[in-house]
Amino acid sequence: MKGFRLSITAIALVLLAIFLLYPLALVLDTSLRVEGSGTLTLANYAKVFSSAYYTNSVINSLTAGVLATLCATALAVPLAFCLARVNLPGRTVLLTLASLPLGLPSFVAAYALVLLFGHAGVVTTALRDIGLPIGSIYGMPGIVIVFTLTLYPYVLMPTIAGFKAIDISVEEAARNLGGSRFHVFRTVLLPVVMPAVLAGALLVFIETLENFGVPAVLAEDKPFLAVDIFKLFAGEADSNPAAAGALSVLLIAGTSVVLLIQRRYLGKRRFTTNARSAPPPLPLSRGWRFAAAAYCWGMVSISLLPFAAVLMISFLKFRGPVLHWQASLGNYVELIAGSYQPLYNTLILASVTAVVATLIGAPIGYVVARHRSRLTGVLDMVGMVPFAVSGTVLGIGLILAFNERPLMLTGGWLILVIAYVVRKLPFAIRSASAIVHQIEPSLEEASISLGVSPMRTFATLTVPLMMSGLVGSVILVWITVASELSSTIVLYTSKWSTMTVRMYQFLEGTAPGTATAAAAVLILFTAVPLLLVNRRLRRQDGTFL
Fold first, then answer.
1. Contact in structure between 39 and 33 (CB atoms under 8 Å)
2. CA 513 to CA 334: how far, in whole Å?
3. Angle between the N-to-C axes of helices 391-401 and 413-436, in degrees from 0 to 180, rounded to the nearest 10
4. What is the pLDDT of residue 167?
5. For the chain, N or C: smaller number of CB within 10 Å?
């Protein structure tokens, strides 16, 4: 067993060292050099840390991250419980719709809401005309709202898998001792699924820190880390890679602290159960079933508001950047007149990345959760670094590392896949480790004691028990890669342009209507695979993620 663990850990660390740590080291080395002379200096960091502007940038980013994480978790956990344990009408459709926010690029969602609730938005203007003035969506409240509506599926999907992996006998024993359903949920079920909840909450928090699109659209004059890093690295004026590197270190440090807190919490508690099949639906009264259905459909409907805005706006007429309340198919005509290559590239790159990231992340998540040691602790920390690093920073690092022989990857599809796999690997690791926490180790020990090798035990016993979490990982990776922008904008070439790049170019230019039409097409191609996967899972074992 020790050899199996060490092999996985060593291979994973080598891959991460080559495609993550080495590129980041090059970026940080550049940031520590005086431009031109190449002399080592810390003056760039001192300048950043002594700046009130960047201090506010850190505070704003952390505030938005904490608030969005709390809101997303509070909304997603009850929704996950209802989807996992209540026999709701259309729950496969519900889960598919609940997953959609991750497939819409956040900057498009923010822009759509600005067109509705901005200073001169359609809804804002209409309410103002009838004497009901409301504040615009700009600023911290708007950023938290958009983050909550678009990121809560990160908590939802692993938590559903966690609720469905609970042994029903645990709940029955608590009920037989006289506990109410709410008391059992609070004291028995919720603590057992806490690894899944914390895994999703961690992803939400880190994504808010790294996200560039939402603050870029909604922050107005408020500084945010991700936006500042992008401007300092890729800005046409006042470009300062050293300052961007220093800010990137702050992101890594923040992620490390949160991850250590999570590991400390999980390390002091036991969460495993002996579930062999998903627990049956709860026998609720008609009133409680109605309340559960109302909450689920209401929550999902609110989260789909940016989607509804995008779809509605895509059928409206634009004159340059100005929106007019007039129906038109001109946006789609203009989109269809262009090339289909970005859509094809998006589907291919997302599919390859989802498979590769899950194949790499599953064994890493297993080792991290099951075999705690200093080495696996290092692996866990390194595996979470990609989320703390701006996609722009990673993209530049990959260019610095692989822009010359003997391993020249720039300009092709492989460097995009590498960037996506590295960036999304934490999804696979956290999803796998969360579900492994709930698998009883004695099952694997019994298999090994009967002479089955650790590798075969992992492949034939552990992986099937992890399947719900792994499928969730594939879905998460696929739909988030399809909406990825920050690393793509640095690494793509004209041959490998994606849908998000085209949308960004449309919004930056004078074709926001075409951008919303492209977003609507991406929504369609995201929703169909989700629906098919959920239906297949339900037919196989009567469950879904």
1. yes
2. 9
3. 130
4. 63
5. N
How many C-beta neighbours within 10 Å does residue 227 have? 22
DSSP string, 202-226: HHHHHHHHH--HHHHHH-TT---HH
Which parts of the chain register pLDDT below 70?
A: 1, 34-38, 103, 167-188, 234-241, 263, 266-280, 320-322, 388, 510, 529-545
Q: Using the Cα atoms of residue 48, residue 53, residue 58 and residue 59 in order, give the sign of their dihedral.
A: positive
Closest CA to 396 of 238, 232, 507: 232
- The Cα 13–Cα 364 span in angstroms is 10
Residue bearing tokens 């260019």 = 399
Maximum pairwise Cα distance, the chain: 77
pLDDT of residue 148: 92
* 533 Cβ contact list (under 8 Å, min separation 6): 471, 475
Radius of gyration for the chain, computed over Cα atoms and rounded to the nearest angstrom: 24
Report H helices in 268-373. 286-303, 305-314, 330-337, 341-370
Q: How many other C-beta atoms lie within 10 A of the C-beta of residue 482?
A: 27
Let me know if 18 is exposed, middle or buried by CB neighbors in 10 A (0-12, 13-18, 19+): middle
CA distances from 340 to 83, 328, 337, 495, 496 (A): 37, 21, 9, 11, 11
Structure tokens at 455: 């590798």
Q: Report phi then psi at 226, rounded to 5.
A: -60, -40
CA-CA distance, 118 to 137, in Å (whole number)?
6
Quote the CA–CA distance of 103 and 98 in Å, as a whole number: 10
pLDDT value at residue 247: 77
Q: CA dihedral in degrees (401, 406, 408, 414; nearest 10)?
A: -100
Residue of 26, 3, 61 lying closest to 395 (CA atoms): 26
| pLDDT at site 543 | 39
Per-residue pLDDT at 490: 80
The owner of tokens 């109605």 is 290
Tell me the C-alpha distance between 216 and 221, whole Å.
10
Phi, psi of 327 (to 5 degrees): -65, 140
Please tell me the total number of residues recorded for the chain in this structure.
545
pLDDT at residue 147, as a whole number? 92
In the chain, the N- to C-terminal Cα span, in Å, equals 30
What pLDDT was estimated at residue 182?
Answer: 66
How do residues 460-499 score in pLDDT, each as one tens digit?
A: 887 787 777 788 778 878 888 888 887 888 888 888 888 8
